[in-house]
Amino acid sequence: MMAGAAVVATDVGPNRWALGAAGLRVPPGDAAALSAALRRCLDPGLRAELGARANAWARARFSVEALVPAFAAFLHERLRDR
């Protein structure tokens, strides 16, 4: 996602949260849906849009600038409760 690539993922576990609206999700075990989603990514416009959304989503949630303050707040909260 940080690389700005379009993402296709199965809709299991935390993938829905991790992907948000930044990619395409398919039901697990559904080869036809996976194939259709991958074919959709052949469209250069959609691929570029998904890649840009994925990059923005990842930077907002998983960059050093986003994670360090969140982790510091988490540690501060845990240490305060001791």
Give an overview of the whole structure.
By secondary structure, the chain is mainly α. The chain contains 4 helices and 2 strands. The protein has helices at 15-19, 31-40, 44-62, 64-80, and strands spanning 8-10, 24-26. A two-stranded parallel sheet has the order 1-2. The radius of gyration is 16 Å and the shape is elongated.
- Characterize the largest beta sheet: strand count, sense, and whether it forms a barrel: 2 strands, parallel
Percent helix range:
55-70%
Q: What is Rg?
A: 16 Å
Mean pLDDT: 92
Percentage of residues in DSSP E strands: 5-15%
SSE order and pairing:
Blueprint: E1 8-10, H1 15-19, E2 24-26, H2 31-40, H3 44-62, H4 64-80
Parallel strand pairs: 1-2
Helix pairs in contact: 3-4
Would you kindly provide a brief summary of this structure?
The protein has 82 residues and is mainly α. The chain has helices at residues 15-19, 31-40, 44-62, 64-80; strands spanning 8-10, 24-26.
What structural keywords apply?
single chain, 82 residues, mainly alpha, two-stranded parallel ribbon, 2 strands
